[in-house]
Amino acid sequence: MKITAMSAHDVRFPTSRLLDGSDAMHRSPDYSAAYVILSTEDDGVSGHGLTFTNGRGTEVCVAALRAFEPLVVGRALDDITGDMRGFWRSLVSDDQLRWLGPEKGVMHLAAAAVVNAVWDLWAKSVGLPLWQLLSQLPPEDVVAAIDFRYIEDALSPDEALDLLGAASSVKEQRARQILAEGYPAYTTSAGWLGYDDDKVAALVEQAVVDGFRHIKMKVGGDLDSDVRRAALIRSVLGSNGVLMMDANQVWGVQEAIAAMRVLREFDPWWIEEPTSPDDVLGHARIREAVAPIRVATGEHVQNRIVFKQLFQAGAIDVCQIDACRVGGVNEVLAIILMAAKFGIPVCPHAGGVGLCEYVQHLAVFDFVAVTGTVENRMVEWVDHLHEHFRDPAVVERGRYRVPTAPGYSIEMLPSSLEAYAFPDGPMWAAPEVLVG
Amino acid sequence: MKITAMSAHDVRFPTSRLLDGSDAMHRSPDYSAAYVILSTEDDGVSGHGLTFTNGRGTEVCVAALRAFEPLVVGRALDDITGDMRGFWRSLVSDDQLRWLGPEKGVMHLAAAAVVNAVWDLWAKSVGLPLWQLLSQLPPEDVVAAIDFRYIEDALSPDEALDLLGAASSVKEQRARQILAEGYPAYTTSAGWLGYDDDKVAALVEQAVVDGFRHIKMKVGGDLDSDVRRAALIRSVLGSNGVLMMDANQVWGVQEAIAAMRVLREFDPWWIEEPTSPDDVLGHARIREAVAPIRVATGEHVQNRIVFKQLFQAGAIDVCQIDACRVGGVNEVLAIILMAAKFGIPVCPHAGGVGLCEYVQHLAVFDFVAVTGTVENRMVEWVDHLHEHFRDPAVVERGRYRVPTAPGYSIEMLPSSLEAYAFPDGPMWAAPEVLVG
Lengths: 436, 436
Fold this sequence. Notes:
Two copies of one chain form a homodimer. Chain A is globular. In chain A, helix 13 (304-312) links the parallel strand 8 (294-297) and strand 9. In chain A, 43% of the residues lie in helices and 15% in strands. Chain A has 18 helices and twelve strands. With 436 residues, chain A is an alpha/beta fold. The mean pLDDT of chain A is 95. In chain A, 61% of the residues are buried. At the A-B interface, helix 1, helix 4, helix 12 and helix 13 of A face helix 1, helix 4, helix 12 and helix 13 of B.
């Protein structure tokens, strides 16, 4: 099956109008996606992928998608899947494009969309949800998808094989278990920084009613307001609930330590993104200073090389992979295996648009084929924008229902791609007609 | 003076036709630039900036330039220069664009072009070369241009003030000295990986005749070939010459250590980019293993936060700032001052197109206003593409002549912008007419 064409789309949702998704760093995001469709000779089968963005600048990612087009279109799916490592490197290490990263920022975001579209296509072509395709692959084939360049000092191909091989005999049983039980979720829907106190209190109450024990709030605005909101949420949640805090990178190292000395009063389980995602040594220092509060990061960690160092330096307690910040499935596999070797639980970043749909597959693969446990593990859940997907993620009683439709669950409805196309779709060209 | 318009240009030079600039990672680069012109109410004064690229993907940087346009056009130069830190942060931390970095990759490359264009405009408006504008600014104004977010644990504003204040009384004398003597240079023109042995030998001979004692060669192809070429260059250069090696990131940590155990026979002064620029801890391990060979990196180090950690971890001996990899002059100032605090010499990365023109200003500022020494310090020199600039960099007898024309020396000739415009300029649309 040959990939015959690629289309790239700029899709934006006007979430800033209600301050959904607002935090200390991103005060009015319009959740968006640079979206790619790989068409094939078979009209019925296409591969879909997206990279999540925040509104302005999505067009830059679309330009990056177009730069990858000649590296994908014209290739046979079998050729690609027969050398997934080579395919991945052909994108992230093209000898001219590489200068623009390497392996970070816009180019890496766009590479992720393309790589994920290929995996979506592969999974659909064999009629399996992505997690199941990954779980059923022989360990050798999983390892053959990973580029070990720059991480061999932390994880060798042989070690990766051993980690995967250890689960071989129990994979089927684990798959049945997680299909029956679902994967644990936590919610961020309640605690956006732009919401007023009454809305936050009502949402926390509703979350508890909906079966969530774990709730994440945004911090890092001003400290007095963080304290007020933390007291409010903790009072509604009760002392049995688990409260996580997320500073979205607004602090320096010392600021983070000082702020958490105050906020520890509310018994946070973790502090997420206390400082720059680039600051491995800073995270290590913060972790030492704020223990036993756990340190989490990952949604902005650019690639496996920085994750490697976060593990090597003992800088984090929680690894929050993102499905399209690093270079798609191939690189996520490397990170999940490194996390397993270093004993760090993976709690994927989601929210955004499409991220819940994506990462549920990664968490289920981690359970089935790698770690076999959900202890200290859960996937973020934000309850919006799911209606735009053909196979939306579903959370019930605080757990993700394991997806069963073929593919990576990331295919958007054609009507949504059209309505929210930027700048010419009706939601942007004539929004007053469509919203109140 | 108000900035009234911004134009963005995709300019590419077909250097791959002769393998100029070829190394182990970039086998056939077309040296290129995403180029920006800021027009003002005053027809005679415009600000120019570029970010260096490698051919394909330059159009992605141009799209990023356009994304910054609304943050620059319409602003008064005085407003910007009165709050340089605020201006810089408005670009790199725009609350929607930030997601695409943050502070790395395409967006940061493009931000550098815009930021540098503003400094070029400022320098021209006061009739000074950039290095002189920077050197004459009161320490408080230099510090006010720096965003200390994420680096205060390594360098506080007060420490920066002290470093700059210490030089106040000697700046004028140092400026006279460097104007008279020029700034030391080394050459990379001889050792590109794609050149055959005869060409390399002839170029090294010529470089010595031209007054260079320091020569850099590319390594990291296959080790046998590296050994053959190193022996050749060392034999022509003689034991008094200084030979540097540059692996352009092709090795992992253990590979780098193993390769340098072999190549140490040729007495390299430094090994540059032995591994991924993202791998702070890896550089630290390599440095420990290959001492006394020095470890150098920087041309791909994405921002001040990674440089901070390279210093904190004792990972490098040589800091190779790039003028448009990090976010332009403002961020370079932060890095030069951190390097001074940690006692690490700055040897800027150049070559490319426009990079020699840019970084000569930074090295001269470092000498005049910060360190006052050229010991272990020199600026890279590659002798090509200078003819496209209005005020090209000039190297004589192994030293950069200090620039005296107003601005940042980065203004390209209108005829070059036209001829090499991609894809519609005559050099690309009909190259057979123009080259043999």
